[in-house]
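HUMAN:
Could you generate one sequence with tokenized structure?
ASSISTANT:
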Amino acid sequence: VQLVESGGGLVQAGGSLRLSCIASGIIYSINTLGWYRQAPGKQRELVADISRAGSINYVDSVKGRFTISRDNAKNTVYLQMNSLKPEDTAVYYCNLRMWPRDYWGQGTQVTVSS
């Protein structure tokens, strides 16, 4: 299984970015795709995830600003990030949770300037 992210970059506060992640390889029908982030000196945290059936979770700090979605036919997950804040600056990692383990992308940098 391989996860390839794209869409990170530098944006001013209040701006928007859209992250994409394509999963390839043997993908079972029961799985959850998600986005985590890790800022310097901090632990990696879940930003949002979405099951194949469409069940969604968000961390409180991004509710109302970020939207996660997926295209099951393309094994792709998206993260639309609006109203970005400097505290959203981090490396964002795509995650595939599929028994019996988790898979990770290489990460994409998101930097929000004030």
In short: The chain has a mean pLDDT of 96.
